[in-house]
Design a protein that fits this description.
Layout (H helix, E strand, L loop, with lengths): L4 E3 L24 E2 L4 H4 L3 E2 L2 E2 H4 L2 H10 L3 E2 L10 H10 L4 E2 L6 E2 L17 H11 L7 E12 L3 E14 L15 E11 L7 E7 L6 E6 L4 E5 L30 E12 L32 E11 L8 E7 L5 E5 L1
Antiparallel strand pairs: 1-17, 2-5, 3-4, 6-7, 8-9, 9-10, 10-11, 11-12, 12-13, 14-15, 15-16, 16-17
Amino acid sequence: MLTRCAVVAICLAVGIFSNTAPRAGEVEAGTLLNAGNIDSLLEQTLDGHRIGDLLIESVEENIRKYGLEIPLANYQPLELPPKYLAATQQNSGSVKLDPTTKAISGYVAGVPFPEITEADPDAGIKLLWNFFHAPLPYADVFEIKAETLLIDVNKGFERSLEIEGTTLYTQGRTSLQPVTIEPNILKRQLVVFTKPYDVAGLGQFINRYSDGTLDDAWIYVKSVRRTRRVSGGTWMDPMPNLDQLYDDYFTMDAHPLWYPEIKLIGRRHILATAHGIDPNIAHDVKDRVVLDSAPYGAPKAQSWEPRDVWVVEIVLPKNHPYGRKLVYMDTEATLSYFADT
């Protein structure tokens, strides 16, 4: 597994080609950046950006030490869903941020704060409110069937876990009407482990609230065939048989007010994957990572392009396994590419 950073390839569309002729000193699209050529390419440019400046520290470490290879591509703008854009334009003006509590009011649908500036002292919390209410990877109903591979970088594949899940948003919907019976519930989320046998059948169900109330959460305990209510703080717990936390899902999966401190560090360009596999189309994860040679586990065939991102530092609660989290969020859309923890 990759170390120190969660490389999240959130894939919206296929298409990585550019007809733009390379400029002098430019690396051509399709060049493979790896441990063998990284030193010779650091001073080269891609879309005018120095490649050494595009690499965040943990990605460079994965290239040098753990065999990560990055196919380079030119920047492409993101195509956002028309209803998503329309909802943002129609409703964002009504959203207000309380300067003391940092809670928001007046949210209906779309991105709460589409215009973010570095000069705004509340820019960090506004970016997290955008991700909380309008995360682009999700639709109003998000269904997932996924496999997690446990891989030793020196020994190879060890085992896998398979899950199935459904997330139903009840607020901020753009393809369906909001659910108003319990208007404070933001989403309902069900996750069930289906493989291997020792965890198959274990499941978790949560209601997440928009006002910062801790989750209502239940688990199904396979060994006793009973459903049990659990603490609303499970968002910072590790998933079964993993060191990955529930809060690592898409780099962040918590209410913004649960983080004691949120600060915008700045804005920069980084290499990230913004166009590739559509997560709603079934694919075999074993085809996406290196499993036949050491170092094992590096992702394959995802093209990386220069992306303009916000860098946000999050301080975690004292009882959280991490001390802080540094997230890299796209300036064009509510996408978070990396969480360096």
